[in-house]
Amino acid sequence: xxxxxxxxxxxxxxxxxxxxxxxxxxxxxxxxxxxxxxxxxxxxxxxxxxxxxxxxxxxxxxxxxxxxxxxxxxxxxxxxxxxxxxxxxxxxxxxxxxxxxxxxxxxxxxxxxxxxxxxxxxxxxxxxxxxxxxxxxxxxxxxxxxxxxxxxxxxxxxxxxxxxxxxxxxxxxxxxxxxxxxxxxxxxxxxxxxxxxxxxxxxxxxxxxxxxxxxxxxxxxxxxxxxxxxxxxxxxxxxxxxxxxxxxxxxxxxxxxxxxxxxxxxxxxxxxxxxxxxxxxxxxxxxxxxxxxxxxxxxxxxxxxxxxxxxxxxxxxxxxxxxxxxxxxxxxxxxxxxxxxxxxxxxxxxxxxxxxxxxxxxxxxxxxxxxxxxxxxxxxxxxxxxxxxxxxxxxxxxxxxxxxxxxxxxxxxxxxxxxxxxxxxxxxxxxxxxxxxxx
Amino acid sequence: xxxxxxxxxxxxxxxxxxxxxxxxxxxxxxxxxxxxxxxxxxxxxxxxxxxxxxxxxxxxxxxxxxxxxxxxxxxxxxxxxxxxxxxxxxxxxxxxxxxxxxxxxxxxxxxxxxxxxxxxxxxxxxxxxxxxxxxxxxxxxxxxxxxxxxxxxxxxxxxxxxxxxxxxxxxxxxxxxxxxxxxxxxxxxxxxxxxxxxxxxxxxxxxxxxxxxxxxxxxxxxxxxxxxxxxx
Lengths: 439, 232
Known about the structure:
The complex is a heterodimer. By secondary structure, chain A is an alpha+beta fold. Chain A folds into two domains: 2-47 and 304-428, no CATH class; 62-288, no CATH class. Chain A has 15 helices and ten strands. Chain A has helices spanning 2-15, 17-45, 82-91, 128-131, 144-148, 158-165, 215-220, 239-244, 259-279, 294-300, 306-336, 338-346, 351-387, 394-397, 402-428, and strands spanning 56-60, 96-108, 117-124, 136-139, 153-156, 174-177, 180-188, 211-214, 252-256, 290-293. Chain A has a six-stranded mixed barrel with strand order 2-3-8-5-7-6. In chain A, helix 1 (2-15) packs across helix 2. The longest helix of chain A is centred in the last third of the chain and has 37 residues, at 351-387. Chain A starts with a helix and ends in an 11-residue tail after the last helix. Chain B is an alpha/beta fold. Chain B has one domain: Rossmann fold (3-Layer(aba) Sandwich), CATH 3.40.50. Helix content of chain B is 38%, strand content 27%. Chain B contains eight helices and ten strands. Chain B has helices at 44-51, 74-84, 100-111, 115-128, 144-157, 174-189, 201-204, 224-231, and strands at residues 2-12, 17-28, 33-37, 59-64, 67-68, 85-88, 162-166, 193-197, 209-214, 217-223. In chain B, the strands form two sheets. Chain B has a six-stranded mixed beta sheet with strand order 6-7-8-3-9-10, sandwiched between helices. In chain B, strands 2-1-4-5 form a four-stranded antiparallel beta sheet, with helices on one face. The longest helix of chain B has 16 residues, at 174-189. The radius of gyration of chain B is 18 Å and the shape is globular. The chains are: A alpha+beta, B alpha/beta. Chain A binds chain B through residues 1, 4, 11-12, 14-15, 339-340, 343-353, 431-433, 436-439, and chain B through 45, 48-49, 52, 54-55, 74-75, 78-79, 81-83, 87, 89-91, 93, 95, 97-98, 106-107, 109-112, 154, 158, 164, 166-167, 197.
């Protein structure tokens, strides 16, 4: 019977084009507005590394000012000092650990026709690539020995490889950055986790870096951070060395832990480390070390802005208003067809059959509204991109994947079915004899 | 067989009670062709609605095809309507956006028959009413008489035990009306029980028996020749 009801639904839409178009438009506009915001919320709140998000932990140590917390309410700083980061790295208490910071380099191409250009860079340790599940198109990352021996190696992003080597395999070839020669060990494939979980302190929705090279090399060459650096007391005299020994936080430390036991053991280690620092006159605040897995860390950092949540609420309200309109339109349409309903009831249609017929018709309208809504969502996202295109991160937020397209259509159908409940119930209550005139 | 015993129907509003049927008793035997006549407001419509299970009644009992149908729920009434009763309306009541085939198909769909059987039945009854060549015409492409033939085909498709016809020729000219009446007579001869409401004495005479309804009661129910003699 579903096919029969489907046919009747399509016929009804064809025979009431204006009313049907109004209903499709009401649902489409509601879905479009709602899904535009839902889409942004979805991208912002998505899991950037779904297979590993529960084994990757961001480390926070409270090395901050004894007189006030780094962040209210009583939160430790988001990043770590060089002293603490390298101490945790050297301890190697996790299965893997990564210490990194955002930097920048100037690449001097071999081709004399190409001018030197700036790239965003990440100074990081070897575990960065396997730990964060970074996909490679050519080669691979580097190993611990390159870290330990300050070997000048580099991993390129796909676009930089296109630019420097025309996209061919460059592994083993060299790249000159700021006058130093680095050997290419690998090229990263398309990879742009959103949010950029490993460094939300420097823009949760920014693109990943264009090149990656060893943290140890970066430190030896006194390459400073291009990200946020926060200090609670002066670094003092002594240049780079003084800065490294300061209480400034400017790098991110991540550790890979599997299961509650490893988490507990690592937490104990962090507390012991803090106690040892207290003995040295640092860490004057009460113990306040934290380990957050990826999604906890995204939540802690409020990656999804409150504004988006408010907009989401408004968009849902708008959808409800559209649905109320749809209820009115459906009611008008069904009441206009009370003669048809009465006749069908006389010919043997049960209330259930009438209910099914009109629910399926509402589903068809919902489907059409959903398709329109997907189109309007696309336009909505494009509009946001045009309006706020000056912010680099916006391009990463206005994406629409198949899941969201599917969700928009399902939401439209469910909304239409919900809107149809009352009118359809009214249709079922139409008396079989009421519209048959004399009989 | 249709048997009503002391059936009454009272319509109530806040201030008024209207007795549409009062202790209405009637038996229609299998294979009969019964006409029902009476002045406007006499209760003919209410009788047909109750007979067709389109309305419930207030008191009394009603047996249809040997079964008490007084206390059926809505779903059971729908099933009985679908399986045992065929309706023919004065204004044809075809669904304008469906072609002849699909109009006749409506009651069969609710019967849950398979496509092949539905097709066979539809083709058979549409041929019977002489419209086999117009199977995919819309109602608007047919004359009034042809539309009523489609309505008769729709009523017959479900092979009902009873045909309830309300002024089946009321919207037709005399030529078309005669042809429709001929068709109903043929259907009755083939074994289907017919109850027909009409205002026209000439048409009432085509039935085997005429029931006269007045003030919600059967005022007479005699073979047609007696009834017509009394009228004269």
